[in-house]
Amino acid sequence: MEPGNQxxxxxxxxxxLSEEAELQPLLFxxxxxxxxxxxxxxxxxILAIATDSHLHxxxxxxxxxxxxxxxxxxxxTVPKMLINIQMRTKVITYEDCITQMYFFMLFGGLDNxxxxxxxxxxxxxxxxxxxxxxxxxxxxxxxxxxxxxxxSFLQSLLNGLLLLRLSFCTELEIPHFFCxxxxxxxxxxxDTFLNDLVxxxxxxxxxxxxxxxxxxxxxxxxxxxxxxxxxxxxxxAFSTCGSHVxxxxxxxxTALGVYLSSAAIENSRATAIASVMYTVATPMxxxxxxxxxxxxxxxxxxxxxx
Length: 306
Description:
Strand content: under 5%
Distance between the termini: 64 Å
Low-confidence stretches: 1-7
Number of helices: 11
Strand order of the largest sheet: 2-1-3
Structural class: mainly alpha
Number of strands: 3
Mean pLDDT: 88
Helix content: over 70%
Largest sheet: 3 strands, mixed
């Protein structure tokens, strides 16, 4: 692009999931319902854990923080989309776009790290039960949570600061329903080599390493369970991990699916539709997975409502 095409970027245009006017009320109702279910479901998980002293354990401490991260993760994108549909506008200011992208990466990264920490918690509980409460003391749990926040903050801040150095062209249409980092970079007129390099390095480090940690934890967990002689012990051990395995599979499966689809399909709108799975559907389904598969959560919810 020529330098003459550069602009101060007062605003971006979010094209959304569809430009057909007759579909907008349907999209508004669908995403409003999904957001309310996500917010209510995760809030109930937090309240159930906070009000039941039996759930004041490391596993549920991290689960309540995961629910908080899911609420914030969804809240960075869906409310703005709903406002744009209701106001019949597709505009988002440059400042709002950068802010949305920053918090989206922050809470997405926090989800990633919390799932890793929860896998480590299950590894200690099943493979080293005698030392579990000694290792997973409140101070260490707080340190793990703080580390997750700091790493998420640093990676989103790094990408955000590098984005501020870019200049943009007059074509400022984002074929998405939120300010997705990769889509914004593609609109830049200036050289994006450094941004691309950092993005891939950070994604590799903060994606592959935590996921490898989760796989290693569950390899050890499965090995320990298979060595148990009691069928009841095996069943109980598997039940404590079942919900977490389901959430991990959903989170990484949908994220990987969107990444592969974006690499294979040139249609950015199709990629935006696919991304609904990990940005909206996954946080919405997490409370159902934990409440339906976890007897302690079900009892805590009954106690909370009664």
